[in-house]
Specification:
By secondary structure, the protein is an alpha/beta fold. The chain contains 48 helices and 35 strands. The strands form eight sheets. It has an eight-stranded parallel sheet. Strands 21-20-17-16-15-14-13-22 form an eight-stranded parallel sheet. Strands 28, 29, 30, 31, 32 and 35 form a six-stranded antiparallel sheet that branches. It is globular, with a radius of gyration of 36 Å.
Length: 1311
């Protein structure tokens, strides 16, 4: 039996390494015995099963929390206390399905996650009760069937916070949780789970490795308390389960699978694997990567698991993968030798586990298959990680540790830190990586700097820079508290530099144990109680003593030990220093030969301190020393990676002089080198290399090309003029400047954009430069034309790839996407004619006939524009036009184009939906390419025919739609207790009179800006990252678009500041609150509390699509308003309801500003104005809604939410807008405009298609009840449409046109 006092002997040649082996507890032995021949079966999802019970608020409250001040519905972990019967039932179902291990219902069981419900103090109890209930279920099932082993796994989820990602885009060092807070929360959770009877612990769904490291630290601290007076918990197996969030193969915080494994292995997990986020198919390649890492080193002695989701959720968020299919995938994993344990995550249930258990019953586990093969012995080796893994192998040779982020190593870096110029400090780190550093050393030891704060801040900022954080970090300090500050903010496996025996052996052991809990490798200095080692003998003696203590007392993995035998300064003029370099090299040989698996490092710059000021000589000395030290066994060194000279290229004279000094070949060696240094002119290098000026010694054509590619317009006039003069001297027309050098440059832009090497904002800037160049040339071309005409010569026009007509359809004022498409096409040598917004069909047809148009593109944002596009297509057909028709805009889709537009245009084969600007060039070029167009059109026709057929087949079936009266009988109003509505008890709003229309003129934009959601800005410019760096501010970290997204954001900030400073845009709003009652789906609005005669009616639609769970309601907006008539027994004490209306706009002044920029040929700034106006409008709506809740209506006066919470709709109440899913009919806007006299009061108008003008406007209704929520009406039957038309007093055809997108039938077929 292996226990703490026993040694594990690992043979390496004739030598042996003795390391402490952790005690193998009872559960580990049981699991290890069973897993030798069986794949252990895990349970499935808990949340999915809880949802099937359709629980209500009272289930979550129970008796214990019936008076709790916050809603508790959705707090599944609380059910361990309030509904233990239900949780035990789910546990039992999984056990009876064949699960060997069930996880406790504690995914959100930390005090951190429970804080959302103000139940932090219940965290221990939640975990204790969950484990106790699980243990009870296991015991009961074991009693029935004792032959199958069962265990309870205490689940520690990721929490709802992240220690690695900043929540504040303006402060990349900000965090919403600290490592210490995580440790305390996890420690409390683990205590509860272990006290409740958990057999093992699962640290699972790890999206942030730093969070998981905190959980590991907490658990290890329970097993090995830092305080010797604290009684330790008995060890249990630990399972680590990471989450790869998408096909990028990375965690949410950016680590690769391999890096994640390297960061976790210090806990010696019984099993490591993946769960959640992906289905089996998507997870397979990353599981293979993980298995490859584990299999590559048998010393890890770790098993592998997987518990995937039931596929990928559909558009409704539902998991539909059948249990048999899930089981089939798991069988494939088993047959490939990938798994030792398997189960299910989101969407899986007992049936999935039953199928998996049955299918895997006779399949051998990975470890058994591995044992059956001959595997070569593997030497334990050092593994480090940042976002990627760094493995030290024979092929690694030497690892550069960048030294310039060191207060003692770089004056420039020290200045940045002392002056708190953090961005410049980050750039120094980035330069080190670019110059070849594979690890980055960070040292903040400086008397006038708070080392702990500076270390923590810089490492947090670096965590958000993927190109820097991809490499491991060396946390370097002589102050152990500073080292701890660094360890608490780094998610990867880093290096601690350093500890030593200087203080005492006890101090050395204490620090080493702490470092081990953090999972870091450690640099050990050759320093003991007597001082620093200088001789070979002392270096070897101290390192050997340190090695034995670390491996035999602390249990430190020998491969994670890095010795620094002290590189000391030579050529100082003192004889006793002359052997320092030679001693280091000799000691390195002995250490590597006698202390198995360790590594050797050193601070290389120390060697040449005698020659400070002569940087060139120092570079040569470092290069020569490294050449010999690496051959002796030096594995890594702290060195300026950008200042290393290749040994073979060093001039022989200086090489001999330097080697004479390094090896102390004769007494005069130092003196000769000093003389050489004095005779050589001192050179001084800087930390950066100057970039050559792109304008020097460059042909004008190349300068123009560079300016176009990089969007630089500073010199465009002078370069264009120089080029024009050259062409004129060669008897060529000015037009040739455009067709030649300028178009050549734009062709490069087009190629780069098409290959994904340039991004949309860059293309727009390139177009700005092109337009300015063309504008400069226009007067010359006009003059040449006039002269040619006067002399009877023929004049030539610029040749284009084709002519494209673009227009936003009648009734719509939105054109930002269309404008971007126009610029992108223009950059690719297409002539673009833009008819602007609100374009009637006759104007489009006239322009086509007058301008030899090759392609016409229609754009629109609002849903009525979809019908207008259909009308335009019909009109084009009537006019005999047959050119390709492009459809684009936010509400358009490929399906709508195929079903509603293509059939009505006789050239339908050329009707194409264009998703965004990046696709426009490909589509247009394919349509106009004679050799390719027919194949392209045939593919489009086939695809659209299939879409149309599938859609029409679905339309014929309405079996999943319930009759209107049945839906009404199960309406949402039945689930709402209006007596308990969280509205003011006096009924009336607190800050505004009922029925009063409030006007806000020239609202301060400074108050709106903090509410801006910046994500749509990046969508406009098509610089959207991929998860987990898709959203702001993480998009700046995206490896593909991050840099450009940052530039777009900075440009937006600059323009926004100008807009606010110069008051270029004006924001206005109008709103009011009225008494209201509901009549089925409709809402009746009254002028006062008498509620006698309605002054307006808002008409609603009700959900009819069948619900997946019995008891779910069919909602309409009217359900959130007190019914006009209720049964007498329900009317007593009934709270009356109110309805708010609002319109906000920040678009006043936008058109003028846009035209100003367009006149300056600056499309980039023009489009940015549109984007910013839209962002301000949405933010204004968010700000006004907050003011409504807290001040004007006043039902949430204590609310204090940040922007993130606002965007997640964590407040009470909703603000649905006409034309959106809750009420898809834009006609409701007419009622709003009439009731509030919007146009008269603030000048915001409605177009014929009910688009708002200015375009940057938002309108909607306010519902204040606590039960109000957003929903989608979905498809509706003809029965409901007829009822709705009757209530509105409109013809069916009018209503069907307005609601075309949600009809569950084809009006043409049913008429």
């Amino acid at each position: 039996e292996i226990c703490d006092c026993c040694w594990l002997k690992q043979k390496r040649g004739r030598r042996e390494v003795r390391t402490v082996m952790d005690f193998e507890d009872k559960t580990t032995k049981e699991l290890r015995a069973y897993i030798q021949d069986h794949i252990i079966i895990l349970d499935g999802a808990m949340g999915s099963q809880i949802q099937t019970y359709n629980l209500q608020e009272e289930d979550f409250r129970g008796e214990f929390f019936k008076d709790h001040h916050k809603p508790l519905k959705g707090n599944n972990d609380l059910l361990n206390i309030t509904r233990p019967d239900l949780i035990e039932e789910i546990y039992t179902a999984y056990l009876e399905a064949g699960a060997n291990i069930i996880e406790t219902n504690t995914f959100n069981g930390t005090s951190i996650s429970q804080a959302d419900y103000s139940l932090e103090k219940e965290a221990y109890r939640i975990n204790f009760e969950s484990a106790k209930v699980a243990k009870r279920a296991v015991d009961k099932v074991k009693a029935k069937n004792p032959d199958i082993p069962r265990w309870v796994a205490g689940a520690l989820g990721p929490t709802n916070k992240t220690a690695t990602i900043s929540p504040d885009s303006n402060d990349p060092s900000a965090r919403n949780i600290t490592f210490d807070e995580l440790v305390e929360a996890y420690k409390e959770q683990a205590r509860g789970l272990l006290d409740g009877g958990s057999d093992l612990l699962f640290i699972e769904t790890i999206f942030d490795t730093l969070n998981a490291k905190a959980a590991i630290y907490a658990v290890l601290d329970l097993f090995e308390p830092a305080d010797p007076s604290t009684k330790p918990y008995g060890r249990v197996p630990i399972v680590i389960s990471g989450t790869i969030i998408n096909n990028s193969g990375r965690t949410m915080t950016g680590q690769t699978t391999e890096a994640f494994v390297a960061s976790m292995m210090h806990v010696k997990p019984f099993c490591i694997g993946l769960n959640c986020a992906l289905g089996s198919i998507q997870m397979r390649p990353f599981l293979q990567q993980l298995v490859q890492v584990i299999n590559s080193d048998p010393n890890k002695r770790t098993y592998v698991h997987v518990y995937p989701n039931a596929g990928i959720p559909n558009e409704l968020g539902e998991y539909t993968e059948e249990p048999t299919l899930t089981a089939d995938y798991l069988v494939q994993f088993a047959e490939e030798g990938l798994i030792d344990m398997a189960g299910g995550c989101c969407g899986t249930g007992p049936k999935h586990i039953s199928c998996a258990a049955h299918s895997l019953k006779n399949k051998p586990p990975r470890n058994k298959l591995l044992r059956s093969k001959e595997t070569p012995s593997v030497t334990p080796t050092l593994e480090l990680s940042g976002l990627t893994r760094l493995v030290f192998t024979k092929e690694t040779n030497f690892v550069n540790v960048g030294e310039r982020c060191n207060m003692a190593g770089s004056i420039r870096f020290k200045k940045c830190i002392k002056e708190e110029k953090w961005e410049q400090a980050v750039e120094i780190a980035r330069e080190q990586i670019q110059n070849g550093a594979q690890v980055i050393d960070v040292n903040m030891d400086e008397a006038l700097v708070d080392g702990k704060q500076a270390m923590s801040k810089l490492l947090k900022i670096i965590a958000g820079e993927p190109d820097i954080s991809s490499v491991p970090v060396m946390v370097d300090s002589s102050d152990f508290e500073v080292i701890l500050a660094g360890l608490k903010v780094v998610q990867g496996k880093c290096i601690v530099n350093s500890i030593s025996l200087k203080e005492s052996e006890a101090d050395f052991i204490k620090k080493a144990k702490i470092i081990k809990k953090y999972g870091a490798a450690v640099v050990v200095m050759a320093f003991d109680e007597e001082g620093q080692a200088a001789s070979v003998e002392r270096k070897v003696e101290i390192c050997t003593r340190s090695y034995k203590i670390l491996t035999e007392v602390v249990g430190f993995p020998p491969q994670d030990i890095i010795f620094d035998p002290n590189i000391l300064t030579i050529a100082t003029g003192m004889e006793e220093h002359n052997d320092y370099a030679k001693n280091f090299i000799e000691a390195t040989k002995i250490i590597k030969a006698t202390l198995p698996y360790c590594r050797v490092s050193g601070g290389v710059s120390n060697l040449s301190f005698s020659f400070r000021g002569n940087d060139k000589l120092r570079e040569i000395m470092h290069s020569v020393f490294l050449y010999h030290a690496i051959n002796a066994g030096l594995d890594m060194g702290i060195v300026n990676a950008g200042q290393i000279t290749i040994y073979s290229t060093i001039e022989p004279q200086i090489l001999n002089l330097v080697e004479d000094v390094i090896f102390n070949r004769y007494p005069e060696a130092t003196e000769k080198l000093l003389k050489y240094a004095q005779d050589t002119k001192k050179t001084k290098t800087t930390d950066t290399v100057a970039v050559a000026d792109w304008r020097i010694d460059t042909k004008v054509e190349d300068r123009l090309s560079h300016a176009l590619v990089h969007g630089i317009d500073k010199y465009i006039d002078e370069d264009t003029e120089e080029c024009r003069k050259q062409f004129v001297q060669n008897n060529q027309k000015t037009l040739k400047v455009i067709e030649g050098p300028l178009m050549n440059g734009m062709n490069i832009v087009g190629d780069l954009f098409g290959s994904g090497k340039m991004f949309l904002p860059q293309v727009i800037k390139s177009a700005r430069v092109m337009k300015k160049a063309v504008a400069y040339l226009l007067p010359f071309m006009e003059k040449e034309k006039a002269a040619a005409k006067a002399s009877g010569e023929e004049t030539s026009e610029q040749s284009y790839a084709g002519t494209v007509l673009l227009a936003t359809v009648k009734g719509d004022v939105h054109d930002i996407g269309k404008n971007i498409v126009g610029v992108v096409l223009g950059c690719n040598n297409y002539r673009v004619i833009d008819l602007g917004v609100m374009t009637p069909p006759e104007k489009i047809i006239q322009a086509i006939k007058e301008n030899q148009i090759d392609v016409v593109g229609l754009s629109g944002l609002i849903t009525p524009s979809l019908n207008e596009m259909v009308f335009v297509a019909k009109e084009l057909q009537k006019a005999g036009i047959s050119i390709p028709l492009l459809i684009g805009g936010a509400t358009t889709s490929k399906l709508h184009t195929a079903v509603k537009i293509s059939p009505f245009y006789k050239n339908g084969a050329k009707t194409v939906h264009v998703l965004d600007a990046s696709k426009s060039v490909v589509v247009v070029s394919s349509l106009l390419d004679p050799s390719n167009s027919q194949d392209f059109m045939d593919d489009i026709k086939e695809e659209y025919d299939d879409l149309r057929t599938e859609y029409l087949d679905k339309m014929k079936s309405t079996k999943n739609l319930r009759p209107l009266e049945e839906a009404r009988s199960k309406s949402g109003v039945l689930s709402i207790d209006f007596k308990a509505a969280d509205l003011p008890r006096n009924g009336a709003p607190k800050g505004v009179k009922l029925g009063e229309v409030v006007v806000l003129e020239d609202y301060d934009l400074n108050d709106i800006v903090p509410k801006i959601d910046w994500n749509p800005l990046f969508a406009v410019w098509n610089v959207r990252g991929k998860y987990p760096t898709r959203n702001y501010p993480r998009v700046f970290e995206d490896p593909t678009v991050g840099v450009q997204a940052k530039k777009v954001f900075e440009d937006a900030q600059q323009l926004l500041a100008q807009i606010i400073k110069d008051k270029l845009l004006k924001a206005k709003a109008v709103f009011g609150i009225w008494p209201a009652n509901s009549d089925k789906e409709d809402i009746l609005v009254y002028s006062d509390e008498s509620r006698t005669t309605p002054i307006a009616t808002f008409y609603g639609l009700r959900q009819q699509e069948e619900k997946p769970n019995e008891g779910e309601r069919f909602y309409s907006l009217g359900d959130f308003i007190t019914p006009k008539t209720v049964p007498a027994e329900q009317s007593r004490g009934l709270e009356e309801s109110y309805l708010g209306l609002f319109v906000v706009s920040s678009g006043f002044g936008a058109e003028e500003l846009i035209m100003k920029f367009k006149n300056q040929h600056d499309d980039y700034s023009a489009i940015m104005v549109q984007a910013l106006a839209d962002r301000l409008a949405e933010a204004f709506a968010e700000k006004l809604h907050e003011d409504i809740r807290r001040k004007y209506w006043g039902y949430s006066q204590e609310e204090n939410l940040n922007v993130e919470d606002l965007l997640k709709v964590k407040y009470q109440g909703i603000r649905p807008a006409p034309g959106y899913p809750s009420q898809p009919d834009h006609l409701e806007k007419v009622t709003m405009w009439n009731l509030m006299k919007v146009k008269e009061r603030i000048g915001c108008d409605l177009t014929d298609s009910l688009a708002m003008s200015p375009a940057a406007s938002v309108s909607g209704l306010y519902f204040g009840g606590k039960d109000s929520k957003y929903f989608a009406v979905g498809k509706v039957t003809k029965e409901q449409v007829k009822d709705y038309a009757g209530r509105r007093g409109l013809e069916m055809s009018v209503v069907e046109e307005n609601l075309g997108q949600i009809l569950a039938y084809d009006p043409a077929e049913s008429s």
